[in-house]
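Q: I have 293 residues here and want to know how they pack in 3D. Can you give me a structure?
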Amino acid sequence: MFGPRRRRPHFFHTLTLFLVAIATAAGAPLLPVQTARTAPTDLAITGGLAGVPLGESRFVRWADLRALPTHRLKLTGEFVPGEQEVTVVFLSDLWRALPVGAEADVALATCGDGYAAVYRAEFVSRYRPFVVLEINGQGPEKWPPPGLKFNPGPYVISVATAVEPAVAGLLDVGHKKPWGVNTIEFARFAERFHGAWAGKWAALSARGAEGREIWINSCASCHPGPDGIFGGTKSGQPFPVIAAIAGYDPGLFRRYVRAPKAENPAAKMEPHPHYTDAQLDALIAFIAAETAK
């Protein structure tokens, strides 16, 4: 995964407001949102929506998403073997078409099984993630496509080297390709991940700061982090349990991350054999709140 970098919220907030202003001035309406889900393919939108009370969700219909500017991509092995055509809307275009508040600088996708993915504004701009609306011309009501044993619907968010070659350099690219997405939250990164910069984590060592980036961009897909920062619930393991293992038996933690089922045959976690010793050391340093010396 890419290392720590400075966020530039002001630029992206300004850009979002500017683009929305252009669309409004040109007479192009924002994406219609509904107050209730009327179909399984309605996408829930929550978080920083202008004019929506905090905590309430709104819903976007598949047909309205399909009416946005879309793109057809030829991808190989994305869902089934061989080449397939997917119809997508870029996450940046969806973001701009919604009444997202100016302070929002992160999109948080959650799935029906508790999996999650984090897309900061910088990531959206650089790697161009997209929401899959159709696979080989068929919408989610007709999924799974032939050759796929599970239904990836109602939505899939993905990235591809065919769209942005820099995707090839991502660590854990699969964490940015969640399927079963039913909710996207637009929020302020500093609020949703405050705990990773507060308390014991306020003065991390350089190694711990590197591990924080790995956690947020990868581990948060299945695990909530310190002080309740955003994270998926698929693992069922609370952060204190993970911290106890990493702190008291780093060797077990390393082995488990690389080959979970070798340590526990019932493990749900996917193996991460590609993690280097340095990356695992950084991850442990973050979990243990290693401070600068």
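Q: Anything worth noting?
A: Residues 107 and 186 are 5 Å apart (CA to CA). The two ends are 25 Å apart (CA to CA).
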